[in-house]
Amino acid sequence: MYNARPRITRILSMIMISALTIPLFTGCAKGETVADKGQSTTQPDTKQEQKEEKKDPVTLKLPIWSTITEDLFTKLDLVNEYKKEHPNVTIELELLKDTEYENTMKIRNSANELPDILPLKSAWLINFKDNILPLDDLDAAKNNMFAADFKVDDHIYGVPDSQFNEFVWYRKSVFQEYGLEIPKTWGEFVTAAKKIKDGGKYIPIAMGGKDAWPDYPFNEFMPSLVAGDGDYWSTMATIDEPFTKGQAFYDASAKIQELYDAKVMGPDPLGVGFDQSKLMFASKQAAMIALGQWFGSDLKSMTDVDMNDIGAFLLPVRDSVDQPFNTISMVDTFYTIPKTSKHPEEAKEFINWFFSDAWYSKYLTEAQLQSTMKDTKIDLGTMFDGAFDVSNLNYVLNKGGNEDYKKIESAIKFDVKKMGQDMMSGKDFNKMMQEMNKSWKNARSK
């Protein structure tokens, strides 16, 4: 008789195996094997993900030329503030002398050793244009009010960090003592300085002529103010004899010579350096000093300075209150990225962060500088109360000159600050102008 038990047993076994196997496969996603299921994306390997997210350490080298900037970065702890958001990035600051900065960077450029982030002045952008990256697509560049004004070959190469004006800083108590009002014309300014000199108690205007550069508010900027042309250096490059009476450079220099000849900058302005001149003002030995807006934070850092006695007014160069009141508006410290940087993307991230609310407003408020970003406003404080209350105010955006100007400047070693020293020393003014015309015309012809 046929025995059906073994066959029934085999059938039941197959059914049980099928029943156990089906859930294993139906639980897998399409295209996923049982082996794949063990590493399902719904249960990630945390260690692996962390390993992938962990970024390699990066050091970004950032040189600076100002001790004031170094003090601000230190006080506000720039290095650690950035590391909070970018823990893998270390900002390495390097302080260089402002008088040596440009040449140092030219030497490093020749050796392909430029830093990852290269701050430049506007006049230097042309010199380094072939060695730095275009930043047209950078958010910080797009939102900057002035970056596009300094394009080179139709590209934005640098993002300026601050806007500031040039001021004459003054002692309110001295002006009250001599019954002086804030001058609104060049004549009123010279007259006020002479009146303080005649009083015999104070040096009217502190001047660190020994260092040359402190005469820049006069010798470097006044030609542009007289011309009403922020790009006056480029305009000069189109003129054979710009040192002729009736030309803006000559007319501005004649005003400056009048001031120097009045001997209102102390008995020996060429024997005094900048550090001494600012101490003279801080200690109230001098009634005035002409310097940029950046000087406000410098004053605050000095001890025993009565800030309530410090005021500021815009340098007047006009001859009549009916004329436009031209005043220099400067933008400074253009952040650029050299092509040789090993970390260009990280450098771009840093520049965007620098101009973000996380840092930028805090930095400029402490520095007492104005914003270059469209949506950022800075409170300048009481020192500037009334400083901008003048009729017909006109901002002249200072620029560094085009390539034609740079060629002439280099050919004849044109140095307006050194010219200021010569003017203070008593060198024959008209002879100086004639010699400059000759050299300038000769350089243009070549």
UniProtKB/TrEMBL annotation:
Positions with biased composition (Basic and acidic residues): 46-56
Keywords, sorted A to Z: Cell membrane, Lipoprotein, Membrane, Palmitate, Signal
Protein name: Uncharacterized protein
Native source organism of the sequence: Paenibacillus pseudetheri
UniProt-annotated stretches for the region Disordered: 34-56
Signal peptide location: 1-21
